[in-house]
Amino acid sequence: MTYIKRLPMHGPTPTFLRQHFLFAGLSDPQFARIAATARQLPIRDGQEVFRAGDPAERFFLVESGLIQLYRLSAAGEEKVIELVRPGQTFAEALMFMERRRYPVSARAIGDSTLIGFAMAPFHAVLQESPATCLRLLGAMSQRLHQLLQEIDHLSLHNATARVVRLLLQAAPEAGAKRYAVEWQTPKQVLASRLSVRPETFSRILKQLSHAGLIRVHGRKVEVLDGEGLERWAAGPE
């Protein structure tokens, strides 16, 4: 595993960490034990955090930036598994596995800052407290439900509906009719995350533009008709 530098944790506050489901159910002494293992890790744009098969000793929370989790096919093509945003964690599930090796690779998209936590102390805390385990299990079950909903959207809707749903999810509030979206992620990465080809992604944006639903300016997309997008999502062509 490659780090740029290991630093004492000074940026994130306990309140910031406590908002995450992994830490919300910990007692103050338990949280102090975990926080003592935290390291703030600045990662440069394009730098690998870890590669598939590396020994898994830490899980991570994204403090700033964006992390791409991906796998390589037999042909060497990258498949984006997930885009991890600020406030989200990744690799935490490996704490519960006997063979702790990262199953995917992780790379920074843009300069990013992570907080790395040692898995062993967290695992020890859970072994010592069944009540804490149950609280964490409930929180992780809710997250699993959200991920299953996302899988349903990806598998049951066609490519156009996936792109439309991406635009709708970026709305500042439910039912917003006009708003702007600016991609913080390269289009090819977004396309891979949505399981569509980059050229298909671009074609769908053009199709929505011709329909008068959006206007595209480079990385910025102006949604002109949120209600119209809702209708596309509900009944894609």
Automatic annotation (TrEMBL):
Q: What protein is this chain from?
A: Nitric oxide -responding transcriptional regulator Dnr (Crp/Fnr family)
Q: Do you know which Gene3D superfamilies this protein is assigned to?
A: Jelly Rolls, Winged helix-like DNA-binding domain superfamily/Winged helix DNA-binding domain
Cite the InterPro entries for this sequence: cNMP-bd_dom (IPR000595), cNMP-bd_dom_sf (IPR018490), Env_Response_Regulators (IPR050397), HTH_CRP (IPR012318), RmlC-like_jellyroll (IPR014710), WH-like_DNA-bd_sf (IPR036388), WH_DNA-bd_sf (IPR036390)
Keyword line: DNA-binding, Transcription, Transcription regulation
Q: Where is the HTH crp-type domain?
A: 157-227
Give the species: Candidatus Methylocalor cossyra
Q: Which SUPFAM superfamilies match?
A: cAMP-binding domain-like (SSF51206), Winged helix' DNA-binding domain (SSF46785)
The Cyclic nucleotide-binding domain extends over 22-143
Which Pfam family is one of those matched by this entry? Answer: cNMP_binding
